[in-house]
Amino acid sequence: MISSFLKRVVERSTHISNGMKHTTNKFxxxxxxxxxxxxESYSTSAKLMHWGMASGILSCFALVQAKNYTxxxxxxxxxxxxxxxxxxxxxICFVPRVAVRLSNKVPKLPEGNVIEHALANLSHWTLYSxxxxxxxxxxxxxxxxxKGLPFFFTTIPGATKENKNGKIAKNAxxxxxxxxxxxxxxxxxxxxGAVGFHFLRGQNILKRINPFL
Length: 213
Hints:
Layout: H1 2-32, H2 36-39, H3 44-68, H4 73-103, H5 114-144, E1 149-151, E2 154-156, H6 166-200
Antiparallel strand pairs: 1-2
Helix pairs in contact: 3-4, 4-5, 5-6
């Protein structure tokens, strides 16, 4: 009787152990593999443009935050000078970014339903729209306000006194500031969250934009 009881205990333990091993293997596989659509890769030029512009855009956000967290007026001016310089550079880079996008094969979307794919496309093109709108509104603000366009070690002259337009500059500032906050506080976290969402589903989409692969 005792022997039979011990036998059942051993069998039960073995069953539990095998179940745990199976669960662990599935969990490990989820974080180390990707489905075939997600494993397709972007071109090297697209990867470099992606990370280059991502770094520039995040720098723009960081410089504004640095300006907000200092009481030194001189430093505020410096932070905004570099913010505007980087923003203008991102505007210039937008043209080759679109050219690379249109001239290279784009990987298929990760496996998902029609709604997920529609939202992914909507989010993607909204990001492109924001990457275009933010520099354009910044340029309009600086040019029509007459202060010019800072560009690292120089300043491109703004409109002359006769051509200045305070209304355009004011509207540009308003939309630049408010839409910029939507960009920073909503779309960037949404973009990062989407990467995490796919990662948890076993779709390592970062792999296809990795410039070292």
